[in-house]
Amino acid sequence: MKTILVTGGTGYIGSHTAVELQAVGYDVIIADNLVNSTASVIDRIERISNGKRPLFIKADLSNETEAAAIFDNNKIDGIINFAAFKAVGESCEKPIEYYRNNLQIAINMFVNMKKHGIKYFVQSSSCTVYGEPDSNPISENTPPKFAVSPYGNTKQMVEDMLQFITQTGEIKAIALRYFNPVGAHPTALIGELPNGIPNNLMPYITQTAAGIRKQLTIFGNNYPTPDGTCIRDYIHVVDLAKAHVVAMDRFFEHKNKANFEAFNIGTGNGFSVLDIIKSFEKTTGIKLNYCFGERRAGDVVRIWADTTFAEKELGWKAELSIDEMTLSAWHWQQQLAQE
Ligand code: UFG
Fold it and tell me: What are the pLDDT digits (tens) for 238-258?
């Protein structure tokens, strides 16, 4: 039985990953400082997992002492690192906090991996490392461009650190470059819980439909795309969570072909903002109140993944459709309203 430390495991993607890890027999330790999540998520993971409860440790992983204590007191076989500040806009206002937090957490993990002989590390990375693509779909071989935000830069920097750290052979790492994670668990027990006004499209849509927000503003309708709105590769969070399990299995089955590997985790399909709204309206039967507004600074026009490498090498492929993404996001929103 292998034990995986899931940092940031009470968060949106971390909680779904904890469920999928437990489902295939891993033991899970979740460490989270709860700045952007709540401890009740542990109860929900337990419910979904038929009574199997992850060990929860409340800790600020950017703090050396708190991080070290986790490793001194537990036997850990691998780490999936989700713990990070993640708001693109906020990172431009508080760049130093983003660099300190996101990089310090990663460094504390590496230091403790070396000290305790832990070999396997999966990093939560992002397609933001590619910047605005020159062509789509974008493959892993495309060189990263200068980051558009400190947040994106921290994702690039952790990948850069891993490139060098893994060269000694003590640590093997996989970076999963997510495209746009949306949707929620089919039980509607876990999902995305944005703090305050959502920055991202899907929670803004569901909160507008629920009457929490008056109107969704679509940021720009004069982009050079078929309907004038930006195109992204939206991926269901459950598919994304499963990619982490496959990445961890890859280490234990000694299938990795290099000490550091990076994979695109998307569906390979691009959908516009209007496509997402149409899917939401179709699956829920709700007419969404939206308007067109100015472009948002820093938005890439279009990006979607070349998933060939992930399919061939990881043996992983996204399975859930755009309609399953929008409908599950809505069920989660409805569930939240009842609490
Ligand atoms: N959008 C709107 N209105 C909103 C919110 C978003 O029109 O109220 C549009 C955006 O302009 C964009 C699309 O919806 O065209 C998706 O926007 P999101 O904010 O949901 O997602 P982003 O693609 O901007 O950001 C995501 C992740 C980031 C990551 C980035 C990498 O949230 O963490 O992808 O490209 F850095």
Answer: 999 999 999 999 999 999 999
CB of 67 shorter than 6 A to ligand 1: no
For 153-179, what is the mean pLDDT? 97
Distance in angstroms (rounded) separating the CA atoms of residues 129 and 120: 22
CATH number at residue 160: 3.40.50.720
**Is the CB–ligand 1 distance for residue 273 below 6 Å?**
yes
Separation between Cα atoms, residue 207 and residue 260, nearest integer Å:
39
pLDDT over 90 at 339, yes or no: no
Asked whether residue 29 is domain-assigned, the answer is: yes
Cβ 176 vs Cβ 249: under 8 Å: no
Convert the pLDDT of each residue in 88-119 to its tens digit: 999 999 999 999 999 999 999 999 999 999 99
Q: Please check whether residue 80 is in contact with residue 31, taking contact to mean a CB–CB distance below 8 angstroms.
A: no
Please state the domain count of the chain. Answer: 1
pTM: 0.98
Q: Counting atoms of ligand 1 from 1, which one is nearest the CA of 87?
A: 33
**Best residue among 232, 234, 289, 322 to mutate for probing ligand 1, ranked by most atoms within 8 Å of CB:** 232
Question: Could you tell me if residue 196 is inside a domain?
Answer: no
Residue type, 176: L
Which residue of the set 130, 151, 178, 204 is catalytic? 151
CA of 203 to the centre of ligand 1 (A): 11
Look at residue 120 and tell me if it is in a domain: yes
Contacts of 141 (CB under 8 A, 6+ apart): none
Least confident of 129-133, 221-225, 278-282: 129-133
DSSP letters, 59-86, are --TTSHHHHHHHHHHS--SEEEE--S--
| 151 labelled catalytic | yes
- Summarize the confidence of residues 256-263 as an average pLDDT: 98
With a 6 Å cutoff on the Cβ, whether 201 touches ligand 1 is: yes
